[in-house]
Amino acid sequence: MEKLRPSTVMIIADFPETVISYEGVGFGTGVVYTDDGYIVTNAHVVEGAAAITVVPAGSNRERPARFVGVSTCDDLAVIKVDDIEGLAPAVFGSSDELRVGEDVTALGYPFGAEIGTDLSVTRGIISKLDFQLPPHESLTQTDTPINPGNSGGPVVNRKGEIVGINALGADPSMAQDLNFAISIDKAKPIIAELEQGQNRLWLGMSLVPNLYEDYFGTSDGLVVAAFASRSPASSAGVQPAYLLTQLEGLSVNSMADVCKILRSHKDGDGLKVQFMNVTETEIQALEGEVIIGEPTASVPVKVVARQSFAADVPTVPASGGGTTTGSWDFSTDDGDWYTGNFEDSVVEIRDGAYHITFKAGGWYRVAGPQSIALGSDQAIIADVRVLEGIAGVVLGFTNNEGNLSFYLCYITSEATYGCGVFIDSRYISLVEPTPSNLFYPGDFNTLVMSAIGSRITFQINGTEVAAFDDSSVAGGIPGVYPEGFSDVPGQASFDNVSMEVAP
């Protein structure tokens, strides 16, 4: 195997940091197969890397390499180095000529640079030929021991010819020395295409199993570990740490799922994609379209649904007695909230939310449950959606023979927020209307407001946007508030409302 030392190189791939992973380095093995420095390896070794270098056997000098072509579903990639000093091409044999029980050798760099750049050689036999294990269409099974870092390295016959490219091994806790290489006769025509810069069924995403259930809230889907610049994924606006949940309307939980769909299409076909994205304040569902093999033609993904993270009602101190609390999600509990068809509005519980629709512009309403007692210190949290006008949350509401007093913090359908106080039905602004991109008009947004002593605070989707001191209103009850513009009837919905009031 000494003659294959100048043909078998260590590959070092540098990956950028994402919200679910630190900046990292991956290792693999590659096979030099031409005089001018073309190298074949596994796609999963290099796809999505920001930088690639190769190191010849026994050397410590890294040489820069560049991408040439990739086929994710075949797990093959071709890269190239210009510095070919000391390198020599390997010879491809034929996997069709192999026989079960025949001796083979695997070469590579198990565990990468962690144990040095000396080439590792292990021996074994052919256990099975032309084996299908989706997404792979033709694998050679061997009992040759391999480890992480061997990926992309050669399996060699007695003549020193390459008969396979190591691709994957079984979990050692389940099976020992059960490993698979891509059959070289399957690989050769693919390598020839990739060498010409012709990516095969290329989306430009490096997808890995979803091992981040705590982060995404689900174990389904495939995580975008990285993406290639000027790729279908990048032109669609895909970002690292997105979770691919559907492709062409079908759920995808493995590369076998993805490749089954891709192999039913061709370059230039558009595929509908659905992702999940987790931000600091919400979970987003995004949809768009990627065009297979086209680096600039995809339809950018857009947010089509949002779900704010649940937040707790701020705790209010109980002075002289216990607190009164309440919580309503309206899908199963309509509580004791007022509903009806009134002169100014229609107030109803439907579709799991509390809806208020005004019949003309300029009207407003304070709504809430009958079961919450009056108090001084108090807080409210609610998911609020404003379609037209203003919608928000209220603290300290009282009605003295039609003279209303309360604190109000709100968002508007024009993407502004503000706060104020009503004193005997006369409004005084405390926080002037302020433009903001912290919330999404037309969608539910989580609003939190608390009044403890004279201190009032207001949060939108987990971010505090207002805090001020005012003692105009001594106490009352919490509630929700919609209002229309002067010439536009207001429309608003409320859900997942919780309150806490101290006597």
Total domain modules: 3
Summarize model confidence as the mean pLDDT: 90
Note poorly predicted spans: none
CATH class of the largest domain: Mainly Beta
Q: What structural category characterises the helix and strand content?
A: mainly beta
CA-atom Rg in angstroms: 31 Å
Percent range of helical residues: under 10%
- The outline comes out as elongated
Number of β-strand runs:
33
| Helix count, DSSP H or I runs of 4 or more residues | 5
User: What name is given to the CATH topology of the largest domain?
Assistant: Thrombin, subunit H
**N/C terminus separation:** 84 Å
- Provide the β-strand percentage band: over 45%
Q: What's the architecture of the largest domain, going by CATH?
A: Beta Barrel
Largest sheet: 9 strands, antiparallel
What are the salient characteristics of this protein?
Pdz3 Domain, 9-stranded antiparallel beta sheet, 503 residues, Thrombin, subunit H, 5 helices, single chain, mainly beta, 33 strands, Jelly Rolls
Strand-helix topology:
Layout: E1 8-15, E2 24-32, E3 38-41, H1 43-46, E4 51-55, E5 63-71, E6 76-81, E7 103-108, E8 120-133, E9 136-142, E10 154-156, E11 162-169, E12 179-183, H2 184-195, E13 205-209, H3 213-216, E14 222-227, H4 232-235, E15 243-247, E16 250-251, H5 255-262, E17 270-278, E18 282-291, E19 299-308, E20 324-328, E21 340-341, E22 345-350, E23 353-358, E24 378-388, E25 390-400, E26 403-412, E27 416-423, E28 426-435, E29 445-452, E30 455-460, E31 463-469, E32 477-483, E33 491-501
Antiparallel strand pairs: 1-2, 1-4, 2-3, 3-6, 4-5, 5-6, 7-8, 7-10, 8-9, 9-12, 10-11, 11-12, 13-14, 14-15, 15-16, 15-17, 17-18, 18-19, 20-33, 21-22, 22-23, 23-33, 24-29, 24-33, 25-26, 25-32, 26-27, 27-28, 29-30, 30-31
